C-alpha cells in the first residue's frame, strides 16, 4: 500500500467518485482543489486547498507523495487566456513538483479532445497523432507531451487517460463514448497498480458496442471495462433528432467541441447531468 496519494480536482464530479476508492489504496489520500472545503472526508483522507497555477501552493501538497492523480483543470472550452493558468501552467506545475519531490507516477485526466478532430469512422488507436478540437483539447495535448518528455528526460512515469464521456448517456454520441463511473474507477486503479507504465496513453471508454476508439495497444495496463452503453440505445435513438452527416458534432470524435468556435463552451450544448457523488 502506498503511503501518500494526491488527487487534484477532488471537488469535481469525477473527483467525487474517485475519492473513496483512492482512499483505500494508500495510508493517506490528500485531496486538493480551489474550493474552501469538500465536506465530509473519507477515512485516511485530508483536504488541502491549493491553486494549480501557483507552484508555491501545489508543490507542498505533492511533497512526499508516491503518485499524483491529476484531474484538476477547467473542464470546458474557454478563451486561451482563461485556460492558461489552471490547464497549461497547472499541468507544468504538477509535473515539475512531482519530479522535484521524487513522485513515481502521474495519472492524468487527458481527454478525447486531444484528438477530437479525427473522424469517428477512423476508429483511432492510442497512437493517433494529436488533433485538438479546442484550446481545451490543446491543453490536453500539451500535458500529454509534457508527460512524455518528463518520462524520456527525467524518468517520471505517466498514464494519460483520454476520457471520452464520463456522464449519463442521453445522446447518440454517448452510445459509443460513455465511460461509466465504475469503469472510471477501474481505469484509474489500473493506472496506479500496474507495476511499470513508462509513458502510456489509454482511452477512457466503457465496453460499448459502438466504441469509436481502439485500446488494444494499451492492453498491458490491464483495463477491462465491464459496462456497455447499448442498454440505453433504444430510448436514446428514439428520442434523438434525425442524424446529420454534415454536422461536425456528429462526425468527429470531439462531438460538440469539434463544432464550437474556439474559446466558446462545448459543454453548454451537451446536457450533462450533474450527478456528483455526495459523501
Distinctive features:
Rossmann fold, NAD(P)-bd_dom_sf, about 280 residues, oxidoreductase, seven-stranded parallel beta sheet, two-stranded parallel ribbon, Epimerase_deHydtase, alpha/beta, globular
Provide a descriptive summary of the structure in words.
It is built from 9 helices and 9 strands. The chain is an alpha/beta fold and 279 residues long. The protein has one domain (2-269): NAD(P)-binding Rossmann-like Domain (Rossmann fold, 3-Layer(aba) Sandwich). Helix 3 (80-100) runs parallel beside helix 4. One of its GO terms (molecular function) is oxidoreductase activity. Pfam families: Epimerase (PF01370). This is NAD(P)-dependent oxidoreductase. InterPro entries: Epimerase_deHydtase, NAD(P)-bd_dom_sf.
Order of H and E elements: EHEEHEHEEHEHHEEHHH
Largest sheet: 7 strands, parallel
- Please state roughly what percent of the residues sit in beta strands, choosing from under 5%, 5-15%, 15-25%, 25-35%, 35-45% or over 45%: 15-25%
Low-pLDDT runs? none
- Separation of termini? 24 Å
Summarize the structure.
With 279 residues, this protein is α/β, with parallel strands linked by helices. 33% of the residues lie in helices and 17% in strands. Helix 1 (13-23) crosses helix 6 (181-193).
Helices and strands, with pairings:
Elements: E1 2-8, H1 13-23, E2 26-33, E3 45-49, H2 55-62, E4 67-70, H3 80-100, E5 105-111, E6 124-125, H4 135-154, E7 157-163, H5 174-177, H6 181-193, E8 199-204, E9 213-214, H7 233-239, H8 248-251, H9 256-259
Parallel strand pairs: 1-2, 1-4, 2-3, 4-5, 5-7, 6-9, 7-8
Helix pairs in contact: 1-6, 2-3, 3-4
Amino acid at each position: 500500500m502506498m503511503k501518500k496519494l494526491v488527487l487534484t480536482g477532488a471537488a469535481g464530479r469525477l473527483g467525487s467518485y474517485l475519492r473513496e476508492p483512492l482512499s483505500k489504496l494508500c495510508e493517506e489520500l490528500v485531496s486538493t482543489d480551489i474550493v474552501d472545503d469538500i465536506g465530509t472526508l473519507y477515512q485516511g483522507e485530508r483536504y488541502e486547498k491549493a491553486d494549480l497555477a501557483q507552484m508555491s501552493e501545489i508543490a507542498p501538497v505533492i511533497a512526499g507523495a508516491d503518485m499524483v492523480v491529476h484531474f484538476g483543470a477547467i473542464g470546458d472550452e474557454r478563451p486561451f487566456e482563461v485556460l492558461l493558468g489552471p490547464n497549461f501552467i497547472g499541468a507544468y506545475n504538477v509535473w515539475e513538483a512531482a519530479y522535484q519531490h521524487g513522485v513515481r507516477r502521474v495519472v492524468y485526466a487527458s481527454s478525447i479532445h486531444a484528438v477530437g478532430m479525427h473522424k469517428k469512422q477512423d476508429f483511432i488507436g492510442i497512437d493517433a497523432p494529436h488533433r485538438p478540437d479546442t484550446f481545451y483539447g490543446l491543453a490536453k495535448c500539451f500535458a500529454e507531451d509534457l508527460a512524455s518528455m518528463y518520462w524520456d528526460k527525467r524518468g517520471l512515469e505517466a498514464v494519460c487517460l483520454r476520457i471520452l464521456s464520463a456522464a449519463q448517456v442521453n445522446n447518440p454520441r454517448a452510445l459509443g463514448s460513455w465511460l461509466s463511473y465504475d469503469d472510471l474507477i477501474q481505469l484509474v486503479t489500473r493506472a496506479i497498480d500496474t507495476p511499470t507504465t513508462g509513458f502510456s496513453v489509454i482511452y477512457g471508454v466503457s465496453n460499448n458496442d459502438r466504441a469509436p476508439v481502439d485500446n488494444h495497444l494499451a492492453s498491458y495496463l490491464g483495463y477491462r471495462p465491464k459496462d456497455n452503453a447499448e442498454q440505453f440505445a433504444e430510448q436514446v435513438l428514439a428520442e434523438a433528432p434525425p442524424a446529420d452527416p454534415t454536422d461536425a458534432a456528429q462526425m468527429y470524435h470531439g462531438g460538440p467541441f469539434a463544432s464550437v468556435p474556439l474559446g466558446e463552451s462545448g459543454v453548454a450544448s451537451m446536457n450533462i447531468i450533474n450527478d456528483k457523488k455526495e459523501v
